[in-house]
Amino acid sequence: MFYQGQVLDGAYQIIEEIGQGGTGVVYLAWHLRLQKYIVVKRIKDGFAERANVRVEVDILKSLHHTCLPQVYDFFQLGSEVYTVMDYIEGRSLQSYLNEGYRFEERKLVFWMKQLCSVLIYLHGQKPAIWHSDIKPDNIMITPQGNVCLIDFNVSLDSSHAAQVLGYSQYYAAPEQYAKAEAMNSHRGDDILLDGRMDIYSLGASFYRVITGVVPAGNQEEIWPAAALSLPYSNAFCRIVDKAMAHDRRKRFSSAQALMNALENMYRFDEGYGRLLRKKLLLYAGCGCMVLAGTLLTVYGSARTAGERYEEQFVKFQESVETGNTEQISREGLQLLNSGTFEGILEKNPEEKAEIFYQIGNAEYAKENYAEARRYFSYARETNPDEPAYWRDEAAAAIKSGDLEGGNQILRQARREGIDSDNLTYMEAEAAAAAGDWESAAGYAGQLTALPGELCVWACLLQEEILRQNGTAQERAELLKMVMEKEPGILWVRQTALAWLRLAGEEPSDSRKQEYFREAGACYEEISRREGLVFEDRVNLAVICEQTGDYEEGIQILEALTGDEREDYRVWMHIACLEYLRQMSLPAGERDFADMQQYGRRAGRAWQLAGSPEDPGMDTMESFMREGEEP
């Protein structure tokens, strides 16, 4: 116990004890050198003895994320171990719950996504880091309305991973309880913990927020949030329920999978007893920036290296034009890794940089932001005169959770004299990542009157910002503005996805139909330009389902069944559409035989694909059971 005014390690003046975390006692202190409030945390004796604390703190010091406190120092006084980290202003989520606060869904989704970004960052470290003690007490709400995840015990993904954990009753995953019991009884156990325990604890924390009920991780039966009468959407409740599934195999497989669900909540909007009024899954990747290319495919081996390079580069541009991310990455790497073309690329640094850049765009579209940043960096180093490379490297750094890295690129770009418009966009991205929505909207708003690509991107960024604090009407107006700019195909595709997202969130049937029609118009424009890809056709079929044009939707999907990859999603959607088509007929005329056949084919293809997590398959199976009933 320290007294007020006591100075530790010659640098940290104690102000008061402010709490006890899962693995230590916490003091508010004043950093005499930095002249700022900090937190000094004393590691409890048992944990200090059993953990390699110095190694763990070194790992903590290397972490940089906007939603994590920065760790500054590590020191020992006698046998006691202390860490020094940022003091996070604000209040814990638990303190709000104690006072009976209710939060609107939009805010909860925003916070949950911020916490997912933290877990993606931590779990993506080498070795991976598990938090192991997520609960409302450890989720701070800052004065700016953002979250910060505090007080985590480092657990490394190794052969001895998570042998000592500071978990909390009620919010710990069932496997954490099981492991603790095995260790307490001195039994040899083979329970290996992984990042899914953090997924559980995050889900349990938000279950407490939306239901008011404190969960218990060691109880197998917890009443699903989706089965309760709550002032939250069925989709959000189902996501929370899946995150805290007792069987970890039924949870989201990763923080990224949970983030994807939150980004596409309409995919979880199928009710348990109201499947006919719910929509099917929509499949598409995020938009990415591309340059228009030309179509020319020539084969032959009896040509010069220059001719073969030109042919492959044009083929690469074709993939860029259609937005086929897998082909972009594969064909781009083939160009870069070919020893035959090495000399050509060295003499054409602009083209080499553009290949790097488009691979970065493909990775960005797949939400592999760290990889995207790497390729954007290669592009920028190869051709530092192109402002877009600086801009997108900063954006990818920020999206990957490295706000400081993004700001560092921004500062360097400013020193290099990058034009003000691209700098303004980088400022907008940084402000949005920091949760400063007002500033982000202000920066993006400066660009919406410009011609060209940057204006389109700014409008789409503003629409993303308005998801947090704007209205559906404001978002719709921005999306209409994008189409008035006559954007390229991939921007049209991204706008279509935004309309679909807006439709999935809209409770009003009339507006929902309006937004689906707007999405359909975008895909019609893509079709007019002969740029429809697989995901576009699937989404067109889903729009047909929403508007009741089941037969046209089936025809669109049947045109994809000749695809050699035998994508299970095609048969899944055909089965669902056929079910809905039959349900639109009089009861005596219904025949579900074709639907059952389509469903079985989808199931086989789904298993061959590795049985990926897909709520659409749950919907289809429910339809199949309904079709079997007399």
UniProtKB/TrEMBL annotation:
PROSITE patterns: PROTEIN_KINASE_ATP (PS00107), PROTEIN_KINASE_DOM (PS50011), PROTEIN_KINASE_ST (PS00108), TPR (PS50005). Residues 605-630 are annotated as: Disordered. ATP binds at K41. Keywords: ATP-binding, Kinase, Nucleotide-binding, Serine/threonine-protein kinase, TPR repeat, Transferase. It comes from Candidatus Pullilachnospira stercoravium. TPR repeats lie at residues 353-386. It comes from the Bacteria. GO terms for molecular function: ATP binding; protein serine/threonine kinase activity. This is Serine/threonine protein kinase. Residues 12-266 form the Protein kinase domain. It holds the Pfam family Pkinase.
